[in-house]
Write a structure and sequence with these properties.
alpha+beta, 4-stranded antiparallel sheet, 11 helices, 4 strands, 60% helix, disordered C terminus
């Protein structure tokens, strides 16, 4: 009841003081976009929509124990993970600090001052004009009634910021896991291409030997021999470059897993095997992107900004605190502990903004702009999120078509190699034709290796675009935080 009386009193004060600072003319303009109002596109509409949501350990679908170990170590030891956890801890601590301001404040204060008192003011004899002790010891209690909810809004905003930090930590985990998977896929591709180059060098060596024997028999020319030999150092250079890329990829995987660059030197050739159906767990745009940590965090940032705006508006109203103190105060050291030294007081303290040079209006305008920024950042992430999902589907769909065509080309190349071998055995063609047919087979195999790598990497991108399974739609970080901080 006392709280309501004070609120009514402050409202009356505002009514009779029209010169108080006004917030008129200041408002937010941005609006969060509805994901379902956006055109998702044909690739999302025509994809399968009956698949399960990604699991948090979605990378296990690649069926490679070494990859699992690298990802798990990355999520446990990478500095970015520790930094994300520290940001969460800092946000929680800041929320606790804001929450503390809503609670009653108590303190003990004391002072022992040796002071010379003037004899030209109100100091009575015998202290005026003399040096004496001026001592004070009090217990103080204050409580901000927060009639207009300014501190409550600050606290809610801090909670939402802590929730955003917690979700952003999940985004760091998802990004790291995806980076490890994609680098591992690149390593697998590079190993396979390295083997292709080794085989090409063997073929080039056989072609050189054949042309050299033909030259010795007078059936070839030095130009033909030189042309064949020229390919060998080029292929060896490609082999060295491939070995370089393998070493660099291993080092990058070591660093991504929170280790020194030499930790993965003994990493063997990957054995990836991805046998999954490609599609989506839903076809509703809001559902498809609603689990993404970056989008969830952006929503929390909007909520935090909205509370900051509400707090800035509440600052335009009177601030009323309840204050009380009790203790001892005396001039003269010997009098401090006497009954006559007792002091006490209790009552409300009113702070009413009249003129502040535009400080409150400027703060409200700034908080409104911060809200607009948070909304537009959310809108931008939303657009990118839908494009990420659609884009991965485009690549996977195209990859499947290309894969089918190259499989056909590989079958034809293998058929050509078999025919060349038969003709050679029958004495109708020389062995060079067999080797050339072998090179054509290697060309198609190399293309398939590239296509397989694209498929493996794009699947990781699709899992990331769908949120990676790290955000559950039925949990709220703020609920946990509120229970812990309040």
């Amino acid at each position: 009841m006392y709280r309501n009386i004070l609120k009514a009193f402050s409202t009356a004060v505002i009514a009779v003081l029209p010169g108080c600072v006004s917030m008129s003319g200041i408002s937010t303009t941005a609006q969060p976009r509805d994901a379902n109002s956006l055109q998702a596109g044909q690739d999302i509409a025509h994809a399968r929509h009956d698949l399960p949501w990604p699991k948090e350990d979605w990378w296990r679908a690649y069926q490679d124990p070494a990859l699992n170990a690298l990802v798990e170590r990355s999520l446990a030891d990478h500095p970015d993970i520790h930094a994300a956890r520290a940001r969460v801890a800092m946000a929680e601590a800041q929320a606790q600090t804001v929450a503390a301001a809503r609670a009653p404040q108590a303190s003990l204060n004391g002072s022992l001052i040796r002071e010379r008192f003037t004899d030209l003011q109100f100091i009575p004899p015998p202290w005026n004009g003399h040096t004496e002790w001026n001592n004070k010891a009090t217990a103080n209690l204050s409580y901000d009634l927060d009639l207009w909810g300014r501190r409550e809004q600050q606290w809610k905003g801090a909670l939402d910021s802590a929730s955003a930090a917690a979700v952003e930590a999940q985004q760091v985990k998802l990004s790291l896991a995806t980076a490890v998977v994609r680098h591992y896929v690149d390593l697998s591709r590079e190993y396979a291409l390295h083997h292709i180059i080794e085989t090409r060098i063997e073929i080039a060596g056989k072609k050189r030997d054949i042309t050299q024997r033909a030259l010795a028999a007078g059936l070839s020319t030095e130009i033909a021999v030189t042309e064949v030999e020229t390919a060998i150092p080029v292929l060896r250079s490609q082999l060295e470059a491939s070995a370089e890329r393998i070493t660099l990829l291993k080092q990058q995987l070591a660093v991504l897993s929170g280790q020194g660059p030499g930790a993965t030197e003994a990493l063997e050739r990957p054995t990836l095997a991805l046998h999954v159906d490609i599609g989506l767990p839903d076809n509703v745009p809001a559902s498809l992107v609603g689990r993404r940590p970056d989008l969830v965090a952006a929503r929390w940032r909007i909520e935090a900004a909205s509370h900051d705006v509400a707090s800035a508006k509440a600052a335009f109203y009177p601030d009323i605190n309840l204050l009380s103190f009790a203790g001892l105060q005396a001039m003269g050291f010997s009098h401090l502990l006497s009954n006559a030294a007792g002091v006490a007081g209790v009552g409300p303290a009113l702070s009413l903004p009249l003129f502040d040079g535009g400080r409150r209006r400027g703060n409200l305008a700034a908080q409104g702009a911060a809200y607009d920024i948070a909304v537009e950042q959310y809108n931008s992430i939303l657009l990118q999120a839908l494009q990420d999902v659609s884009g991965q589907l485009v690549v996977l769909h195209s990859n499947a078509g290309q894969h089918e065509e190259i499989h056909t080309a590989l079958a034809l190349a293998e058929k050509s190699r078999k025919l060349a071998s038969v003709r050679n055995q029958a004495g109708l063609a020389n062995y060079l034709q067999v080797l050339e047919a072998e090179n054509q087979v290697l060309n198609q195999q190399a293309t398939l290796i590239e296509l397989d790598a694209v498929r493996l990497s794009t699947y990781a991108g699709l899992m990331q675009a769908l949120g990676g399974g790290v955000i559950a739609t039925d949990t709220s970080p703020a609920n946990t935080m509120a229970a812990r901080v309040h």
